[in-house]
Amino acid sequence: MALIERVFPFVFSHGGKQAVIDDHQTVCGACGTVSYAGEQISRHELAVAAKIRELDGLLSAEDLRCIRLKYAFRQIDMELMLSVGPKTWTRWERGKVPQSKAADTLIRVLADDPEVARRLMLQSGIENPAAAAVFEQIDEDTKRLATANLQARIGASLSRDMSVGDVASRAIDAVREVRREKGAKAA
Question: What is the pTM of this model?
């Protein structure tokens, strides 16, 4: 019995749409039975999940990994922040399973807004020194940029008692406080 490995179009439906992937299969030369050997099933699962992400306009598995690493989050941190089950983020990030559209939307928001990422981390009770250091660096970078911006806008008109850095720090603290108060009232 000769087994033949081939690449064959695999058609499946998702969300009322037909989709096609190149599927690596093993076929029995005598009877034509299709099977998956070794890594073929994994390759099949990855290709189907990638196609679903493409059809639904979802972030790729690599995008998910980059977003997580942007804040030095661990996979378990992401699961806690998104309130998903154990190993769910791992499956998404490995490309085995596509995330839901709702999860994708929240991931995009936290990717674009460090304050959302920080808030989710804190609300989830996550203690991650590496992530905390990333947020401290974001704060320092923001203060530096705000200081330069304020200096350019108001120049020498500041009081001699207060530096531009002091004004920037207070402005950022005020914005954070307003965001916290808004969040507390909404909850």
Answer: 0.75
